[in-house]
Structures are given as C-alpha cells and as structure tokens.
Write a structure and sequence with these properties.
One of its GO terms (cellular component) is mitochondrial matrix. This protein has 4 helices and no strands. The longest helix is centred in the middle third of the chain and has 27 residues.
Length: about 100
C-alpha cells in the first residue's frame, strides 16, 4: 500500500501537469517545493502536513475546474474587443458593417 503522503504528492503533480500552459511540462520550482512538503509528511506525528497537501490538491483541482467553466460559459474571454463585438453581434443574428 502506498503511503498517504506519496499518494497526495502524486495527485498534486498530476493536477499541476494538467493545468500547465505547455502540455506535459511542470515548473521545477513548484515540483521541488511540493516534494519538500511531502517529505515532511513522512513523519507520523506531522498530520498538519498531510492536511496541507490535501488542501493544495483541492486548490489545484478547483482552479482547473474553474478555468474549464470560465471558458465554457464565457467563450469570448480570450478575444480582442473588436472580435468580441463581432461575436456578440453574430450571436443575436446581426452582421457587423464592413469598415475600411
């Protein structure tokens, strides 16, 4: 059976990997910090560290889900203001006039 701190560490790394802007790449500094925290979780009297790891895992999962929902329900988020106006006009069935 895998110790709880190792399981949490692996889950957190998986979430960091999923949320990375470049697929498959992780920030080495974040990974090193998480490893140091997980190492503290090895000691049986250190239940606070396990709680911190669980909180970090919950945070990373929540942030990833938030990004997914934000893009799903606000598709014009990444557009420029001109593109956003055009997309909004198209949504209600209008065409923007051609300007030169």
């Amino acid at each position: 059976m895998v110790p709880r701190h190792v399981q949490l560490y692996r889950s957190i790394l998986s979430e960091v990997k999923k949320s990375a802007t470049t697929p498959g790449k992780r920030n080495r500094a974040i990974t090193a910090q998480l490893r140091a925290i997980a190492e503290k979780g090895r000691q049986p009297e250190n239940t606070q560290t396990l709680q911190d790891l669980q909180n970090a895992l919950l945070f990373f999962r929540s942030q990833r889900e938030y990004k997914v929902l934000l893009h799903r329900y606000n598709p014009t988020l990444d557009l420029t203001s001109e593109e956003r106006i055009k997309a909004t006009a198209n949504r209600v069935g209008l065409d923007m006039p051609v300007t030169s």
